[in-house]
Each structure stands twice: as C-alpha cells, then as structure tokens.
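Progress against Task 2.4 (sequence-to-structure conversion) is shown through the following example record, which the project officer requested during the mid-term review.
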Amino acid sequence: MKRPIALLFCLLMITMPLAGCFGGDDSSDTPDGELDDWNVHFAATAADLPTCDEDTNGRLYYVEADNQFQVCKTSGWSVIDIQGADGAAGVDGQDGAAGADGQDGADGTSILITTSSSTSCANGGNTFNIGPDSNSNGFLEAVEVVMNVDICNGAQGQQGPAGNDGADGQDGANGVDGIDGSTALIATSNEPAGNNCANGGVKIEAGVDDNGNGQLDSNEVDSTQYICDGGSSATTMLTSYSTPPTSMGCDIGGSVIAHGLDNGDGGGTAANGQLEPGEVDYSTTFCTINILSMFEVNSYGHSSPYYLTAFNNELYFRADDGSTNGVELWKTDGVHAPDLVANINPSSGGDSNPYFFTVFNNELYFSADDGTHGHELWKTNGTDIGTVMIDDINPNGDSYPMHLTVFNNELYFIANDGTHGVELWKYNGVNAISNYPIMIADINPGSAYSYPYDLTVLNNELYFRADDGIHGKELWKYDGVNAPSIVADINTGTSNGLPDYLTVFNNELYFRANDGTNGQELWKTDGTATGTVMVADIHPASGSYPGDLTIFNNELYFQADDGTNGIELWKTNGTATGTVMVADIRSGIGGSSPAQLTVFNNELYFEAYDANTYYELWKTDGTAIGTVMIADINPNGDSNPSSLTVVNNELYFQADDGTHGTELWKTDGTATGTVMVADIRTGILGSNPIFLVVVNNELYFQATDGTNGVELWQNAQKTTIIYS
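Structure tokens generated for the chain above:
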C-alpha cells in the first residue's frame, strides 16, 4: 500500500524533484519487501527529521506536530505547500436571531452661536462667537467660545461724478409776513332735555383757540348752536352723543354716536324725546389711543438725540449713529426711520455738534463745526446739498453763534469774530454773493466781550442784557436802525443789574434785576429809563429772587421768597398792590419751591414740595383754595415731575413712582386721570424721558429701554373705529 500513497503525493506535488518519488534507500521501513523509493516517511516533530544529505536526498516526510510535509533537497529540508485551489463558495447560512438593543448613548453637547459688534472691522460688522454649551445652561459663555468669525461690512464705494448744476432760478420778491392766525375749534356735547331743547339734543360750540392749548375753553366760545331732537313719536329717529367707557381702552378719549327710534324698546319710554339704551339700533365708537415707538439711530450704543426742533412738519435733532458720521444733524417725519441730513464734519468720526436750532425764512439755522472752519453759522432746507455754512465769521477759530432770534425779518445772534469779542450780529437771509452776517455794534470796544444775553422782542425792538465795560451787565435795546442803547442803569456804575428771565407781558418787558439796594426783585420797563421800575419789593433788602415767569389768565405768575414763607407761588397784575402770594403750600420758611410752571386746561400746573408728599404735581386756578396737589405719584418719596408738555388735551411729563423709576406720565388734571403712559424700561432705573417736544400733534423725546441705548421715542395718537 505504500506505493500508491507515494504515487499520489508525487502527482500532487509537481514541484517536487523526481528523486522524491523514486529515490530513497531506507530498506528497514519496507518490511513487506517493496521498493522504498515511493515511501512517505513519518516524523513526530521537525526535530526528529534525519540529516538532509546525499543519503536522504529526495526523501519525503510527514511531520505530525506541524501537519506538514517536508522534502530533503540539496538546500536542506523544505516544507511542501499542498493546498489546492479555493473551492466554490458555500450557500449562505440562515440569519441568526436579533441581538438585544444596546443602551442609549449620552446626550450630545449643543453648539451655540452669539453675535456682537465687531471691533476688528474697519467699516463695521459683526463678530460671530461659536462654541459648545458645555454646562448646558443655554448660554454661550466666554470660556466656552472656541471660534470667532468676523463678518465685516464692505468699504464705502467711490462717490459718483457730480451732476451738472441746474440753472439758478430768479429770486422772487419777499412777501410781507402775515399775522399768525388762530385755530378755530368746535366742541360737541350731549344737551339734556330742557330750555334749550325740549326733547334733548346735541350742543355745538365754536370759537377761536386764543391761548393755543388745543381745546375750546369756556371763555373762547364765540357761538353756540343746538340740534334738538324732534317731538315725541314712536317713529322719531333720535341721536345721542357720549364718551366711551374706560373698558374700551380709549386712553386719549373718543366719542360714541348712537341712533334709534323713540319707540320704547328695551324697557324705555316711548315718545319721550330721549334715546334710551334699549332703543339704540346702532352706534359707532371712535377711540383714540397711544402708540409708543422707538426710532433707533445708533445700533451700537447711545445716539443721545438732542436739541429736538420742529421744522417743515418734521423733527430735526442732533444724534450720533455710532459710525464714521459722528454727532450730526438728523430728521424724521415720524413715519419712516430717521435720515442723516448731512455729514457736516466728514472726517472719520468727526462731530459737527449742531446746536441752537432756529427756524428763519423757511430754513433751519444753527451752529456747527465742519472740522475746518470751527463752529460757525449754518443753515439747511432739509437736504444734503442745501446744508451750507453761511460765513466763516472767525477765520482763526470758532465764532460760536448762539441765542439765534428772529427780529424784523432778520436773524440776530451773538458771535465772536476773533477781534471784537462776543457781540451782537445779524443776517438778513438773502442769498447774495455780497451778503454776509454783520456785527451790529462793538458794544464793549476792542476784544472785550459785551456778551448779549436773553434776546427778546417787544414792540419792534430787540431787548437783551449786555456789558459795555462802563455800566456793568444792564438792560439794552436795539430798534434795527440806530445803534444799540442802554435802557437803564439799574445798578448804577460798573455794578451789575443782572436782568434776566426777560418776559413780555401786557406790552411791557418784565424781568428780574438787582438795583444794589433791594436785592433781586421783579422789574418791568416800557423801553424808557423812567419807565423802568421795580414792580414790588417782595423781600426788602435781601431780594425775593423771582423766577419761572409765566403768563396765565392775564396775570404774571412766578416763584419768589418773601423771607417769611420761603419760595412759594406768586402772581402780579403789574402793580405793587396786585403782587401777591397765591398760596403758602409749605408753611414756614422752607417753601414749596414751585417750578416747571405750565398752562393747561385753564389752570397752571407745576412741581411743588410739601412736608407730607414731597415733590409732586400741583395745579392752581389762581386762588389759594384752588391750589391743590393732583396726585401723590410716589407715596414714599419724591416723584419729581418735570418736562411738562401739553399734547392733545393732555399734559405729559416725566415722574418716578418709586417702583418703575422715572418714566413717561400724563394727566387730564384729575388723580384718576394721572397715569404712567408706559414702563419703557422695566425695573427701578427707569427710561428717563427728557427733551419732550411736539411735532404734528405727536410727542417726541429722548429715553432708553435699557437694551437699545438712549434713543429717540415717539408717542403718537391714533383714532380708530373700534365698534360699529
């Protein structure tokens, strides 16, 4: 059986030398006497293999330990690879059973992105901060930021070529200014059944708004008519007029007009000439509400709008947009976002700082600095090209035009030309090459300042305080033709009379002054030295220091200290005997210090202090008994009402109720009608609304909501039909 086995391996191992099949001389392994040339020999391990030499050359061994065949070659023992070709792939086995679900993996970490204004972008932009919310608090903290990406604004494109100038039109002749007209008002109210209307009806009153408070006061009614309901019949159509209930939210007011037959429906009485609730067939409610809006100029911080001024039915103001424009002149129509009127100082970040806005000849005049000429006189028609400097009054520095005042169709102001000091100037506004502002007179000759102050017009003359270097600061006047002249040397010699609070009342000029003997007291003048007299010596020897001069009900109201009652509210008709204290609000020498005197609804409103309520809002009808506190806005301290401004039959002001901080408030003159308009900045810090001004019957002011910085705000009023 050895020969067939040997032959089989010879056939399989074609690389084996022929001697492997037909060689060998180990006769001891062939007990059966067959040739051993075809034998396959056995070894337990490779170590048991005999020496590979000429005697064993070609001999084949099976090594059990290695499960291998080895053959002796001239090079020594060599393993024979007898592995055949790969067989065909077997059939796929059946799928095993599904394994158990693995445990849920841990939650991943959220990636957060925040944005902020970039400090690296030359033209502005945003920085995107990216990182994982490692502590899972929903906020990307500084330690969690792993990447910052700046997205920058592109550089401003090159300015296009200037267009060709159009041909100048011929200047039209200046017309004579007309007298300001007064507004005619109509008021309607429900008229009960009585002598005027047997069956009731509607009362219609008409008149002229003489005091300009926006409402028809009783003393302004020129005519009254009645539209009366007809006789009693079940088929008579009646109309009623009433005020909407507070539940409708008409915070500014409104009206309800109802119609129906006098037929006794709904439990009413038929044919009684009165429209009762059950008889109303239909009604229409007109409701007026507040709408509070912010106009953001600076998205990077505070724009700080200032010098808010009405011009051409728009609001003009100075503000800082936080970009390369700096503090410049802006405007808004109250509907669209504010526009930059002109970048007067074009240097990067340069501020022109416009101020002392005054309307003259349908243009807005002001002082501004273009970065080259210093602070000089400018004007604008509301366009960039129409914003121009009038003249470089001081070629070597700033002229600082201030106290701009219109008189005799010319613009008067004070300025310093660098040679004559601060003196009185004027400009006629005519656009001619040869026309420039001119100095009226060098009142204090040389480089010394006369510093005209408190420019006020009375009877075709301009009054002001000035110092000529001889008489001290005294009252002066100018008629537009002759040289300015001193009215009276109130405090004789070089001492100062210090006239201020110049106020026109009953065709005379009232003011505070010091004659050197009686102290600061109330004075008046008719423009002559002999007609310049002290009205009353309220506090002999020491002075009463009158201030806040305000006209109300044909009398002049002011604050003063008589030395006994402290600073209280006073009034005068222009005579010594007619100069009296209105009310001793705070008894004793401390005084109530009334301030912010403002006429509203035929009463005088003001801030005052008493020992119980501190600084709160008060009003008076001119009598002691009629001088009352409106509301204790801050029960635990001072509400400090200020910036009193009349808008649409309501008085707006800022106040602090001790909870919301200083916010915008309003009143109709009653305690229940004294309410906070809005909590613009939540918390005790308040929004601090200031610089309240009215344009087109809408209120504008500066405030901050604590998020967007100090910006421009608007409180508009809108009337809508809320139910019909």
